[in-house]
Write the structure tokens for this entry.
Amino acid sequence: MSATSIHGWRRQLPLINAFIRYGLLIGIGFLMLYPLFWMIGGAFKNNHEIFASPGFIPAHPTTDGFTKGWKTSTEYTFTTYLLNTMKIVIPKVILTVISSVIVAYGFARFAIPGRKLLFALLMATVLLPKSVLLIPQYLMFREFGWLDTYLPLYIPQAFAVEGFFVFLIIQFMRSLPVDMEEAAVMDGCNSFQVLTLIVCPVILPAIISVALFQFMWSMNDFLQPLIYLSSVEKYPVALALKMSIDVTEATSWNEILAMSVIALAPSLILFFVAQKYFVEGVTSGAVKG
Amino acid sequence: MNTSRVILDQVTKSFSGHDVIKGVSLEVKKGELVVFVGPSGCGKSTLLRLIAGLETPTSGRIEIAGENVTYAHPSKRGVAMVFQSYALYPHMTVEDNIGFALRIKGMPRAEIKLKVRAVAETLQLGHLLHRLPKALSGGQRQRVAIGRAMVREPDVFLFDEPLSNLDASLRGQMRVEIAGLHARLGATSVYVTHDQVEAMTLADKIVVLNGGRIEQAGPPMELYRRPANLFVATFIGSPGMNILPVTLAGADRDQVTVNTTQGPITLPRVNARVVAGAEASLGLRPESLSLTTAGQGQLSGYVNLIERLGGETFAYVALKGFEAPPIIVRLDGEVDLRVHDEVHLAIDGQRAHLFGADGLALGHAPDTKERD
């Protein structure tokens, strides 16, 4: 008998192995995603059905939640709140990307006196609990007369306050060959042209990651708008959703779930559109053979 | 008329107190291809970067095409550089890569296109213009890097080990191409390499650097025939020169006698200042030794190892009475020799080298006259 022949159940081992692995992954994945499915399912249920069964497939699908939810219980429709969110998020993302890239480039490529100390300070701000800053910042913006405007929500981003993003981009820049930038200098670029024409296109994956993170975090941000915004007409989605729980006695959960689904959509869509940049390494082929 | 193109005058460079370039003066003439060669860390790349303007000298003066450019911006020096890593812009097509410098200069698009086409044709890149660097082979990338330098029509081309990332056969091919290109364009070029074969084949003039100083500068064959010191002698040539420890016995007007453990050897030599009894080194290139019969020749020993390369054979011979490692002898490819054979070697005195205890050459053979 040959020693290499496989007999009996061992022959099926790879199949059993795959079955167990995928079974486990699918099972746990489903558990993790269940609340999300439940929310989406709940959005299409009527208010009585939501708490009647733990299943997420609606027995009598209805879009009532969306139509009523969109109108909201206030004088403004959900459109206003979505637009308000965008008025905060878009400038915030743009300012974050521009300031973080410029500051990271400075740290990564220029021999500034005291660079190590400055970098250590920047990293220290990452560790600083955000809540510590709430009161001094509030007092400062009150002095500026910026309360009940969007300015306190995005103007700070113009100064690269998110140390984490700066760090992320610095790490990405450090992996780039300096030769490429030197070649650009020899071709006649000044530092700013090197950054915009050569470095930025190459670190696009990092820039997109930063933009995406900032977009999602800002969409979900509840605390900052709550502190600085007082008029309902300026509320973003996060506050509007909370408000609809507060104001009515009998909460229409299907409307809240429906609006939550809509609030979730921009982040999800953006994520899937930009996903390929997370994996794609643009630098491949830049140097060596 | 001042035809010299690059002049370095007492250039020094130190990085945080550490001297990397220790006072280098050099002139690269118009149309000349000068190769900087030396072991790693000798400062050859730093010297090139100083000429390029990517580093600023600590002291000294750099002149290109008659202008003092010591502190000028790299793009204002009339130099173009080909990097070791090619340093292509990964997000641009070959066409955009080559035309980038012209675009920064603000040249009209149509004109850029014409110039890029012309350069691409010269380098046989015409069919690749719309590809990204990642879709090119190593040799093609290197050609794009050269094209990017050519399109700017610089006064001086700078090459920083341009072939070291290519495989052996491609390296040979690109070496020939660069030599051809230089012959056609006649552009002043400075070329850095650690590969002395590249240096020997490409250079009009080789500059051997060691520890931030110039050891010797001159035409390749002059460096090969008349190395000024032990460092240049061992660095230039492959396989390297054999060095034997000897003591000086005495000198005539046109010959020098040295004592070895195998007896005295007399070499034809002029202009040698010799102190009898001083230690010295006898330098013998593998090809200046030949086999001879017993009783003839000046050296004898046993064969340690034989490397047959087909056309030629290298024999490693352990000399009797010498502590030095075995010497290498270049022989005919078909030579009838086995390991452990006893061999007798004759020295071609005209091609032997002698170095004093300080490493400097002692005189020279009568037929290798000093060049003007």
User: Anything to note?
Assistant: Chain B has a mean pLDDT of 90. The interface with chain A takes residues 52-54, 74-75, 79-81, 83-91, 100-101, 104-105, 132-138, 141, 148, 152, 165-166 of chain B (CB under 8 Å).
